[in-house]
């Protein structure tokens, strides 16, 4: 095993570390993603059901779909996150090796690196992201990820496979850029040289939580727009149409629907992914 690890290319090591970290965080926090999608797509109603909170919706899903219903969409989430997080971290590793020589990135460089790496990953995995969003909405009866991809391509063409691309990039690229900036700058402010190595994962997780909250709040409107466009691509051909609909039906607050579960999920997922990634990279003898 050590010999095989030594032969592995550093970029492949970064991909493997990222994929494993993405697997752990996806499995744990999938219920929050499902609740976020359901909250964003609840229709306003006279009886007030459109204003159901996260806890109310949680019990509703468990009551009508069983406890396992909270993990609906976990298959496409795995199909997206395992390679997607791997692509993100390996792309980030390559760019750091190319543009940064044994130094930490500045705040502006962190924004660029995080946004560029996420854009590459997001474009590659967007068809699976569309499937994941539809699975979680509970409105589609797809039997498998492959079957869903085939059905979307046959009925909606390439446009359906990449619906919500602009909104996804407007959400994911800024999120990753802002996240990486706050994460690296917060870590630089901490006295790591005098810290017990056992506490390093806790420090990384704490920095990740702080960065995740700020990045999630800043990109929440784009996430709501993305969800609507991927669920109804035949209705919204442009991002501006989705924005107009959300504002007309829900007002400004509509752009922050599902914000609580998303902030919780994105923050915890990113913090865990970075913590696991950095620990694994360190064990492989690579600088993350």
TrEMBL record:
Keywords: Membrane, Mitochondrion, Mitochondrion inner membrane, Repeat, Transmembrane, Transmembrane helix, Transport. Pfam families: Mito_carr. It catalyses: glycine(in) = glycine(out). GO terms for cellular component: mitochondrial inner membrane. One of its GO terms (biological process) is glycine import into mitochondrion. It comes from the Eukaryota. Belongs to the mitochondrial carrier (TC 2.A.29) family. SLC25A38 subfamily. PANTHER family: MITOCHONDRIAL GLYCINE TRANSPORTER. Mitochondrial glycine transporter that imports glycine into the mitochondrial matrix. Plays an important role in providing glycine for the first enzymatic step in heme biosynthesis, the condensation of glycine with succinyl-CoA to produce 5-aminolevulinate (ALA) in the miochondrial matrix. Required during erythropoiesis. This is Mitochondrial glycine transporter. It comes from Geospiza parvula (Small tree-finch).
């Amino acid at each position: 095993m050590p010999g095989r690890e030594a032969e592995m290319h550093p970029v492949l090591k970064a991909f493997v570390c990222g994929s494993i970290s993405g697997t752990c965080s996806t499995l744990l926090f999938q219920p929050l993603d499902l609740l976020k999608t359901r909250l964003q797509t609840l229709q306003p109603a006279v009886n007030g059901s459109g204003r159901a909170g996260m806890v109310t919706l949680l019990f509703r899903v468990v009551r009508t779909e069983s406890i396992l219903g909270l993990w609906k969409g976990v298959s496409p989430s795995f199909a997206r996150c395992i390679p997607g997080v791997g692509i993100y971290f390996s792309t980030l590793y390559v760019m750091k090796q190319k543009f940064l020589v044994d130094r930490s990135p500045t705040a502006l460089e962190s924004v660029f690196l995080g946004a560029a790496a996420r854009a590459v990953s997001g474009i590659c995995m967007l068809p699976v992201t569309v499937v994941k969003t539809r699975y979680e909405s509970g409105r589609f009866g797809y039997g498998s990820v492959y079957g869903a991809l085939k059905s979307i391509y046959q009925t909606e063409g390439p446009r359906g496979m990449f619906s919500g691309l602009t909104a996804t990039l407007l959400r994911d690229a800024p999120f990753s850029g802002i996240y990486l900036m706050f994460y690296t700058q917060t870590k630089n402010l901490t006295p790591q040289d005098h810290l017990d190595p056992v506490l390093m994962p806790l420090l990384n997780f704490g920095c990740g939580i702080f960065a995740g909250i700020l990045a999630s709040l800043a990109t929440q409107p784009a996430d709501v727009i993305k969800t609507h466009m991927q669920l109804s691509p035949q209705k919204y051909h442009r991002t501006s149409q989705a924005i107009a609909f959300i504002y007309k039906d829900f007002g400004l607050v509509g752009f922050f629907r599902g914000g609580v579960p998303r902030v919780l999920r994105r923050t915890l997922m990113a913090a865990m992914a970075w913590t696991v990634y950095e620990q694994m990279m360190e064990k492989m003898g690579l600088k993350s």
